[in-house]
Predict the 3D structure of the following.
Amino acid sequence: MIQNLPGTLLEAEKQFYDSLFASLECNYSSRISIDLKLEGLRLMPVAFRLFKKLNTANIKPFLLWPDAGATALAKRDEPEISQYIKSFKEAFQKEFLDKSEKLLIAVSPQHYDYEEFEKLSNQYHGRIIMLNGKLDDAAIGIGSVARERRRLFISKWKNVYWLEPLSKGALMHVYPNTWNLYRQTSSGYLFKKSYDSKPNPDIIFESLIA
C-alpha cells in the first residue's frame, strides 16, 4: 500500500498511532520501535501525546527516560502523570519489573545507554516501545563480540513506523505495509519504490539517482 507522506508532525503521529495499535492488536512483537528522524524534533511532547493516546485507549503505559535529569524534567512538565514517569535506573526495582502487563515506552535510548537498556529489556517480560532509539551510532572502541551482541539485540526490535527525510527524498514505513522510498521533485515528494525490509543507504542512493 502506497501512503502519502505526512505534511505535519501531528499527521505523522496519527500514522504511527494507527500502526502501533494495529501491531498491538495482533501481538506483532513485544519489542517495537518507532522512529521519527526529523531534524530539530522536540521528542518530549511527542512522548507525552503518545502516553495520553494509549491511556485513552485504556492501555496503561510508563514513560522511561535513560537518565535522572531528563526524568526530572519530564515529571516537572507533566506533574499529573509523574507516577508513570521513571528513569531506567528506577525501573530496575523488582516491584516494577514484575508488572509485565504494563507497556513501557523507552524514550530515545542512546548508544551510551545500551548496556543498561539491554539489561532492562532482558529482565522485563512485557511489551516495550522504543521511541527514537539510537543504539547503533557508535561502534568505535568495542570489539567484534560486543558489536555482534549489540547487532543481535537491535535486530529483535520490530519497526512499526519510520519517517526519515533524505537528501532529495524521504523514507517511510507504516506497519503493516512495505518500506516506501519517495523522490523529492519540483512537484513535491513522489513515490519511487517499495521494499519488504528497510533498504540500506547504498540501495537508497542508487534508487534516487536512477
Notes: The mean pLDDT is 93. Helices lie at 9-25, 43-56, 68-77, 88-91, 94-97, 114-123, 144-155, 201-209. The first helix runs from residue 9 to 25. The two ends are 22 Å apart (CA to CA).
